[in-house]
Amino acid sequence: MATATQLVKKENYLNTDYSIKSWLLTTDHKRIGLLYLVTITLFFFLGGFFALLIRLELLTPTGDLVSSDIYNRLFTMHGIVMIFLFLIPSIPAVIGNFFIPMMIGARDMAFPKLNLLSWYLLLGGGALILYSLINGGSDSGWTFYAPFSTQYSNSQVIAAALGIFVAGFSSILTGLNFIVTIHRMRAPGMTWSRMPLFLWSSYATALVQVLGTPVLAITLALVFLERVFHVGFFDAHLGGDPLLFQHLFWFYSHPAVYIMILPSMGVISEVIPCFARKRVFGYAFVAMSSVAIAVFGFLVWAHHMFASGISVYAALIFSLLSYAVAVPSAVKVFNWTATMYKGSIHLRTPMLYAMGFIGLFTMGGMTGLFLSALGIDVHVTDTYFIVAHFHYIMVGGAVMGYMAALHFWWPKITGKMYSEFWGKVAAVTIFLGFNLTFFPLFIAGYLGMPRRYHVYAPEFQVLNVFSTAGASILGIGYLLPLIYLFWSLRYGKPAGNNPWNAAGLEWTTASPPPTHNFEETPVVTWEAYNYDQLPGMPEEEEAGVSGN
Amino acid sequence: MWQHILLWPTQASTISRQVDGLFVFLIAVTGGVTLLVFGTIAFFAFKYEHKKHPVAEPIEGSTPLEIVWSIIPLGIFMIFFLWGASIYMFEAKPPKDAMEVYVVAKQWMWKFQYQTGQSEINTLHIPVNRPVRLTMISQDVIHSFYAPDMRVKADVLPGRYTTTWFQPIKAGKFRLYCAVYCGTDHSAMIGEIDVMEPADYQVWLQGGVGQGSMAATGQRLFQELGCINCHRSDVQGRGPTLQGVFGRPVLLDDGRTVMANDDYVRESILVPGAKIVAGYKPIMPSFQGIVSEEQLLSLMAYVKSLSTPPPAEPAHKPPAAPPSAAGVAVP
Lengths: 548, 331
Hints:
The structure holds two protein chains of two kinds.
Chain A: H1 20-24, H2 29-57, H3 68-87, H4 90-103, H5 112-134, H6 148-152, H7 157-184, H8 197-229, H9 242-276, H10 283-296, H11 312-340, H12 349-372, H13 374-380, H14 384-414, H15 420-447, H16 461-491
Chain B: H1 14-47, H2 63-92, E1 99-106, E2 109-114, E3 119-121, E4 123-127, E5 132-138, E6 143-147, E7 152-156, E8 162-166, E9 172-178, E10 191-196, H3 198-207, H4 214-224, H5 227-230, E11 249-251, E12 257-259, H6 262-270, H7 293-305
Parallel strand pairs in B: 1-5, 4-10
Antiparallel strand pairs in B: 1-2, 2-3, 5-8, 6-7, 6-9, 9-10, 11-12
Helix pairs in contact in B: 1-2, 4-7, 6-7
């Protein structure tokens, strides 16, 4: 594409200033979104590198690639980096930061400086975690179970815990910013019932971030006090109770699953209507199910503890509530499916990712029903069944949603189209690679293969070979977008304001958007997803494969 | 590697059939619904592809449909819940006649102690068709006793007893794993459950007799540690008598009543001041750091034996009680 003809390009948030300082001190929510994008992409590939080493080690039953101590550090750092430095910030901090103000017709977040501070906090947390890594890493598991983490581990538990503590404040402040922004900054006419569903789920997510994360901070502070000053909170020999740790930890870490999955659900509720060219089926039910998931999500934490020695009656109540939280998730899946009914469906890249999300999330949800059944959970908890289940939710669900979001809004963020062909190839590769990686692990789990085993029994090897083969395909699937999205920055065709003819205020402004988002404050007089009033989606150009 | 492939875990206990039954039911129901959802999505994606169906029909939604697809799943979930709960309740109640084995877990081994005095590392010998109840404690971090062929798992905590039970239905050697990550050699904390025919088990029992039964060992400790000076078999001692105490409620100094169970006995030895029996003074010294987990279990077996009606044998024969009660060790 010629670049010389674009000398008179309009000013936008990217070309307004090219200095490093203008990025590091920016308060523009869009630039902060991009800072997060770069940061978490690096963390994603770091966490992925650990996953690669884990899968290579598990190719054979014996511990031949790394020592047990290294293996334990690998799965710990994989979990910590992926959860706290990638998944928790992923959609909220990148897509939410960029698009929440635009979707409600605002010029910026309610607290732009706080927004920048949130990014620096994530960097600070990340730096501490990297520090722990360089000094040997932590081997406490991302779950930090006491008293192992507080009294027995000889690794960098404190640095890793402090990193998570600091990164947690990034999450809290981001959530706070979203809540205030959605309450106070909506454009005239943008009522709650006209808000795109991504905003509803971002709002529900923000509630969980603000209410849940402080409990994690407290828990980690107690770990710190017990490990450094031997104050007995969790260690029985100091008069503490080891189960107290698990209650506190899961009180945050179960809702944290919803921090990871709710934003993806919001993305799917944007993508499916756009590529089916119709209103989302049952708007109010989809919106309310997000809130219901956020609320019920706080009441199910002890389902991680059914085999831990909690009382039978507590277990019964938590099992029952776990089934209750499954209902709004099921409602969402049915509504997305119904949205496709009598639509006019365009199977473009974001839609493929969204359909992949529904498939993998459904599998993750269904196996969650197994784990909520007390009698089954006792057998499969702490086995590879759990590992498979939560990867279906957190990678199959949350990461597919993130990929759908990235591909849906990429033209708006960068003003460029990526290669549709390679987009589809990557979506299919990721879907297949993912299933090959994690489906065999359900079987390994039911057969009794415990998780976090460096050395395992030979009868599990076939399944692990499948899994490692799948992980290789999955890895390639994740590298592809890195290549073609970078490629699109230079060679991609200009996207135009609205390449999908999508509904939503963010599509009414230029791509990339001007610094203040809108030339003038929009006034909303229509419902969300008014696809019946919009022109159809432009045809995908058959020759557009290579983009030149 | 193919010769090892396993497609279904062995059903080696009574509970394993129940667990598998529910598992198969769950696969059938959730698998069916998953295929229905996938099929519907694929069908819609094909049938309403924009070239075939260029104009979408606006549909707002349907409240009756929303109610239907909320209520029906909830109903199905309740079946899962009740079925799963019934198995869990069954697992929570060991039969009265279960044979008792004590388990001490530590980084990175399993120690088993039998009532009859044997003790073993990493291998649990039990007779087939007889329920076995495990009372477990950890010396350090949290471990988890996991016997996948029995479909049984229970975390082993430091400072607190947990129990589990199962009834093996076939003889053979079965897997035993630690399921909660416990440090460097977590994956080496494995053992074996050797389920034996009753006759073989009897032979094995003859072989490994050590220093008498656990209760006898406990009784010996009871004397060596001087417990007997205050906890006399009559009610004259400075401490409460332990005759018939285990398994019954105990009235405390502050008016509360607690059940004299494993954890109560353990706490009373390690932190005697925590719960004072009504009418007595908090004068007992702590035995924290003096008695090991294994010794605690032996002491417990002895205290238990004082409450079990049948063995009215010499187990608690009151020794020539030194009436002096002056705290001098029994010569």
